Each structure stands twice: as C-alpha cells, then as structure tokens.
Design the sequence.
C-alpha cells in the first residue's frame, strides 16, 4: 500500500501551515487550527494515496504543496456542509446565538463555493481566476501571470467576478 509520509523538509511543513493560517484567517467561527488543517490535508492525501495506485511509491508533503490551498479550502467547505447538516438536524427552538452565528458562517462559505461552481459552468476562466485569488490566496498580479493574461485583464475580470458573485449571493 502506498504511504504518504510527512518526512519532507520542515520548511515545507511550515509553508503548509502558513497557507492554512491564511485560509483560516478568513473563516469566521472555525474551530480548526492551522496545524489541524495541515493534518486533515495529510489524512485526506494519505487516504487518496491508499485508494489510488497500487504502486509502492512514497510521496511527501512536497507533493501536496502545489495543491494544498485548494484541498484545504475543500476541507473547510466539507466541514461547513457537515456543520449545516448537524445544525439543521438539531431542535431549532434550542438554537443558541453562537450556533446560529456558526450556522450563518458555514452557509456563507457553502453558498460562495456553490456560486463559484456556477460561475465555472458559465465561464471556466473566470472561475479559475476566482479560485486562484480566493482559494490559493494569490495576488491578482500573480494570478495574471499564471493564467497568461495581462494584469489589467486580471483586474477587469476580478471586478466582473466580484459583481457576479455578489449578485448570486444576494439572490441566495
């Protein structure tokens, strides 16, 4: 069975923790720590490695670094979806203010992810720009470079995406 081991350079682990901290900074009411999010990433990757190939090759955290922001964001979205389901299953008459704040934060995260998916159906390039900027926490200048578009085009597309997403989120 393939094994994913955290035996890489400690700077790679620190880089993953920095990515996790930047993602968690934007999450209201999240009880997960940066270290916990990195460990969730490791568990998710090791589970996929065990299921995927039958080779005995080993991978390390270095293989996770390029995909880490998106996978970590997906972990947060999955946790939010579970939180929504758990709160909906509880008795609504006993809901405390803290639970309702957590519920609203989780709903907002899921609605944003759903809106980005909808944008991806209409314009994959715009959705990729949003994912790189929001999920991977890259500056628009770097996003423009990665996508092979000009800086001005990236800023125009970002302005469009912000407006489009805001309109979809207002409807939700």
Sequence:
């Amino acid at each position: 069975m393939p094994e994913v081991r955290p035996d890489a350079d400690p700077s790679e682990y620190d880089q993953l923790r920095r990515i996790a901290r930047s993602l968690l900074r934007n999450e209201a009411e999240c009880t997960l720590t940066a270290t916990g999010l990195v460990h969730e990433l490791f568990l998710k990757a090791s589970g996929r490695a065990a299921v995927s190939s039958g080779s005995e090759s080993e991978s390390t955290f270095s293989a996770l670094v390029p995909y880490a922001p998106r996978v970590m964001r997906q972990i947060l979205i999955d946790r939010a979806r579970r939180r929504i389901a758990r709160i909906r299953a509880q008795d609504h008459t006993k809901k405390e203010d803290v639970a309702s704040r957590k519920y609203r934060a989780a709903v907002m995260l899921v609605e944003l992810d759903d809106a980005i998916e909808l944008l991806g159906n209409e314009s994959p390039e715009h959705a990729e720009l949003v994912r790189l900027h929001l999920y991977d926490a890259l500056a628009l200048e770097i996003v423009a470079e990665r996508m092979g578009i000009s800086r001005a085009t990236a800023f125009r597309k970002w302005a469009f995406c912000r407006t489009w997403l805001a309109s979809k989120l207002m409807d939700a």
